[in-house]
Amino acid sequence: MKGINIINELFRPFASFPNNGKIKKNVLYFINLTKFHVYEQLLVEESLYRLSSHLSNDLNNVGFVIINNTYTDGEQCEKGVRCEGDEQRNMVNNKCIVLGISGKVNDYIKDASYVKGNKICIIKRFTGGGTVYMNKNCLLLSFILPHNFEKEKKIYPSNITEWIFKFIYKPFTDEKKKNSSLFNENFYYHENDFVYKTYDKENEKIIFKKVGGNAQAFSKNYFVHHTSFIWYCNYQEMENVLLNPLKQPVYRNKRSHYNFLQSLQSCLHKNVDTPNLFIQQFISHIREIINKKNSVQKEEFWYFNSINLNINEDKAMSTFHLFDNVHMVHVDLLRDIFLFYTNHGKTTNLRSTHFLDAHGNKVPDTYYQYPSFILT
C-alpha cells in the first residue's frame, strides 16, 4: 500500500518518470465517498474535474471513478442499528434536491414551504441534466475521464451517456456468465436515461421506467458523467417535493413519479441484492474493462488504483486485490484539493456547485447544517 500526501502526486503520479518514447502510463483512481454528504461529493468531483485539465494535460493522464452509497448506512441507522462516530453522518439530514446547472427552483419544486419545513437542502450542481430528489435512497456513480480515454469513438455531450452504457454498463450483462453478471436483460438505455425495459402483454407495448438519471459536463480535455441510480423509491415523498416537470423525455409522457420511476433492483442479477454487493461487482468489472483496454493498446497503459480514505474500511478490504495499488489517504487531502481548486489562479471563479435556499437564491456553505469532511 502506498500513500499520497500532496496534490501533485495525485494528478501527476509519473511526473518524475518521463515517457522517453516508451509506453505512456496513466492511472484510473477509484474513490468510495460513502458517508459524504451529496453536496461535498459534488464539490470534490467538480474540483477533480477542473484540476485534472490543468494539472494532468499533456502528461500522464488520470481519471476517477467515484461511488457514494447513500442508502445502506442510512437504512441501518433508521432501523435502529447503533451508529456512532462517522456513521452518525448519515443520521443527520441528507435529504436534498439536486438541480442541474441551469435548473430553476420554480420549475421543479412543488412547495417551497414544505421543503423548508422538512429541512430539505437544495443544491445546484456543476453539471447539466434534470432534477433529482434524494433521501438515503440512491447509489451515486461518477466517471471523470480524459477525452482520449476512448480511442475508437469521439465523445460528445450528445453521445456520452450512450457510450457509458455500451462501454461501461452493457458488458456487465452477460448471459454466459450469469453468476458474475451485474445487470439482467431488463437494463436498457433510452432517451439519455438508464431504464427498466419490459413488455406489457395486455396492451401489447414496451414500457420504459427510469432507474438512473444522468448528468454531464465537458471541458477541452476532460468530461464528467454521473448517474443517480434509484435503489429505493419513496413515491409519496417524491410527490410532495417535486413537480411533474414541463421539460421531460418524450417517453415519460407526463407519467407520475409512481408510474415513471423504478428501483434499480429490478434491473440487477438475482445474486446482486445489496448496494455493497453492487459496488463489489462493479469494481470487479471495471478491473476487467481496464485489463481488456490494456491488452489492445500498445502505446499506453492504465493502472487501476484505489484511494482509501479509511472511512469505509470494512467494505473496502474485500476488493483490495482488484487494484494495482491501494493508496492510504487521509480525507484532508480532498479538503486540500477543494481549497486549491477554489483558490488557484486559473480556477478561482469556475466553481458552480452551491447551496440554494427554498426560493432559489445562492446561500453560503454553512446555510444547511450537516457534518462536513472538507468544509470545516
TrEMBL record:
Keywords of this entry: Ligase
Pfam families recorded: LplA-B_cat
PROSITE patterns assigned: BPL_LPL_CATALYTIC (PS51733)
SUPFAM superfamilies reported in the protein's UniProt record: Class II aaRS and biotin synthetases
Domain BPL/LPL catalytic: 82-294
GO molecular function: ligase activity
Name of the featured protein: Lipoate-protein ligase 2, putative (LipL2)
Source organism per UniProt: Plasmodium malariae
Phylogenetic classification of the source organism: Eukaryota, Sar, Alveolata, Apicomplexa, Aconoidasida
